[in-house]
Design goal:
Blueprint lengths: L19 E7 L1 H4 L3 H11 L4 E2 L13 H8 L1 E8 L7 H17 L2 E7 L3 H5 L4 H12 L4 H15 L4 E3 L4
Parallel strand pairs: 1-2, 1-3, 3-4, 4-5
Helix pairs in contact: 3-4, 4-7
Pfam families: TIR
Protein name: TIR domain-containing protein
Keywords: NAD
Length: about 170
């Protein structure tokens, strides 16, 4: 989910299209005002051009072309999985595009499991199972979309990542 950093995005030439160093994907409800804001500030302090969500970028429930372009123009991704990540179709659409870029362009994706067991993400158990029950009803006419979300969650959660809890 995404807003522009105060950092100027990196680019290979002065007139080329900006390319973000990192795109942060996270569920704002869970982590915007704690873990993700601290991570963003640390990246910014180190001069890392970071794209982070801004609620004003959202218009409706369909992921915007501008956000998809930001994902495609990013060199790497940090996906902060949290309890309610899978409840957001927006987050899941981001994740599918991030995973496509990982596969197509060999881009780095670092999963962070914030107060969530990685196996809940991989196997869609716990809160992820509950979220998918709702998605299966809501998107019953688009089984392919739900299956893409499941596959992206499994593939990204299988990558080497970090497990973080509030008390660490």
């Amino acid at each position: 989910m995404a807003s522009t950093s105060s950092q100027t995005p990196s680019s290979s030439a002065p007139n080329s299209t900006p390319r973000w160093d990192v795109f942060l994907s996270f569920r704002g409800l869970d982590t915007r005002h704690n873990f993700t804001s601290h991570l963003y500030a640390a990246l910014d302090r180190h001069g890392v051009g970071t794209f982070k969500d801004d609620p004003e970028l959202r218009s409706g429930e369909v992921i915007s072309d501008a956000l998809l372009m930001a994902i495609r123009k990013s060199r790497s991704y940090i996906v902060v999985f949290s309890e309610n990540y899978a409840s957001s179709p927006w987050c899941l659409d981001e994740l599918v595009e991030i995973n496509n870029c990982r596969e197509t362009f060999s881009r780095l994706v670092v999963p962070v499991f914030y107060n969530i067991d990685p196996k809940d993400v991989r196997h869609q158990t716990g809160s992820f199972k509950d979220a998918f029950k709702k998605h299966e009803i809501r998107f019953s006419g688009d089984v392919e979309k739900v299956n893409k979300w499941r596959l992206a969650l499994t593939e990204v959660a299988n990558l080497s990542g970090k497990h973080v809890s509030e008390n660490r």
